[in-house]
Amino acid sequence: MKISIIGLGYVGLSLSYLISQKYTTYAYDIDSDKVEKLKKDIPSSLNNEVNQFLNQRKLDLKISNNIVDCLKNSTFVVIAVPTNYDTITNNFNTDIVEKVIKNVIKVEQNASIIIKSTIPIGFTEKIINDVGKNNIYFSPEFLRESKALQDNLYPSRIIIGDRTEKSETFAEILKECSNSRNAKIIYMKSKEAEATKLFSNAFLAMRVSFFNELDSFSEVNNLNSKKIIEGVSSDPRIGNYYNNPSFGYGGYCLPKDTQQLLNNYNNIPNNIISGVVRANKTRKEFITQSILKKKPSIVGVYRLIMKSGSDNFRESAIIDVIDELIKNGIEVIVYEPLISLKIKFPYKITHKIEDLKKIPDLIIANRFSEEIKHLQEKLYTRDIFQEN
Ligand SMILES: NC(=O)c1ccc[n+]([C@@H]2O[C@H](COP(=O)([O-])OP(=O)(O)OC[C@H]3O[C@@H](n4cnc5c(N)ncnc54)[C@H](O)[C@@H]3O)[C@@H](O)[C@H]2O)c1
């Protein structure tokens, strides 16, 4: 059986490694530079875990920049392309997913299509009607930032919209390729699977926002946030995890998925979902105000990444904070080794950590690191537990 994967970002690449342990897998990405790089090397974000993984397993994986080669004779085609949030339509832009689906139908009419990209609730039903083809399934992906392969090897659950012979086969493939023989498979309607993905991320965003708001309260009242969080989280119903304050939730998925869910509510009464979206904005404003109260003339920023170990800074909360600081006339210098010094930003970028040392007033960090231990006196962070 041949399986093809379209889109080799965080989701597509980790699925390619996972599935090619046991199945002939062809993987395609429109970005030919990326394809060439992938043929030579593993991306740094996946390096540690993947190096170990690749040393232990033999993969049947062909990375290609020829989509027809990739799709031809495939039994399953997995789609993992971007679905960015469009602020004009207030919806995910699903154009790329739709284009890929139409392409698959042209090349391999009988292939079953598995959508791994996050899509609006109702998308699968709509596309099935539009293209007149039944075997299109949504299977949500639940990956943590910088833990993509690990989360595919040890899935918390495998969810697939609609129960047919084909969807059962695919769910079993995911389970068979994982290291969890007892991985739970849940079948549901496509709309329910789409909703499950968005509600899962909305819950995570709500949890982050809750502890962030607790932290804002503590900061204003000069209370020990750490003690309160420990006290609250010791209740097993609440749990002592995923409770570390930050400048706000961010990353590629939580901001856009919460916005999309809110849009899917349409006229359905709600307070929590709209509140989660608002709470994140409020938190970033609160953090900005806390920084401004310190009256710095220059602010040094330690990293733009959301989490330690991450290789990207998509939708990082700290970027919004920086934008607000600049609007307030503050000069900002960012230490971020992942950014090319050739790109122009409204702030100065440095690759030298020593440059932060020279900053007289204030350094801010969404996540602490041993690298800035010596700068602690000037540091403003809400990374209370020093973990991601
Ligand atoms: N990153 C996550 O942790 C995560 C988790 C769950 C779901 N998702 C969802 O999965 C989807 C992909 O996310 P990602 O983080 O892997 O994105 P990504 O941006 O890292 O990767 C997407 C890849 O698709 C490629 N691509 C774009 N257009 C293409 C086309 N027409 N044909 C082939 N390839 C194309 C891009 O070059 C890129 O390599 C999104 O819908 C996202 O919301 C992401």
Structural topology:
Blueprint lengths: L1 E5 L3 H10 L4 E5 L3 H9 L6 H10 L4 E4 L2 H5 L4 E4 L5 E2 L4 E2 L2 H13 L4 E4 L7 H9 L4 E3 L9 H6 L4 E4 L3 H13 L7 E4 L1 H31 L4 H9 L20 H12 L6 H22 L4 E5 L14 H11 L3 E5 L12 E3 L3 H4 L4 E3 L14 E2 L8
Parallel strand pairs: 1-2, 1-4, 2-3, 4-7, 7-8, 9-10, 11-12, 11-14, 12-13, 14-15
Antiparallel strand pairs: 5-6
The structure holds nicotinamide-adenine-dinucleotide.
List keywords for this structure.
388 residues, five-stranded parallel sheet, alpha/beta, Rossmann fold, globular
Give a description of the structure.
The protein is of the alpha/beta class and 388 residues long. The protein folds into two domains: 2-188, 3-Layer(aba) Sandwich (Rossmann fold); 198-380, Rossmann fold (3-Layer(aba) Sandwich), CATH 3.40.50. It is 42% helix and 14% strand. The chain has 14 helices and 15 strands. It has helices at 10-19, 32-40, 47-56, 67-71, 95-107, 123-131, 148-153, 165-177, 190-220, 225-233, 254-265, 272-293, 317-327, 354-357; strands at residues 2-6, 24-28, 61-64, 76-79, 85-86, 91-92, 112-115, 136-138, 158-161, 185-188, 298-302, 331-335, 348-350, 362-364, 379-380. The strands form four sheets. Strands 3-2-1-4-7-8 form a six-stranded parallel beta sheet, sandwiched between helices. Strands 13-12-11-14-15 form a five-stranded parallel beta sheet, covered by helices on one side. Strands 5-6 form a two-stranded antiparallel sheet. Helix 9 packs across helix 10 (225-233), helix 9 (190-220) packs across helix 11 (254-265) and helix 9 (190-220) runs parallel beside helix 12 (272-293). The chain starts with a strand and ends in an 8-residue tail after the last strand. The mean pLDDT is 94. Bound molecules: nicotinamide-adenine-dinucleotide (NAD). Residues 6-12, 28-31, 34, 80-83, 96, 99-100, 116-118, 141, 143, 252-253 line the site of nicotinamide-adenine-dinucleotide (NAD).
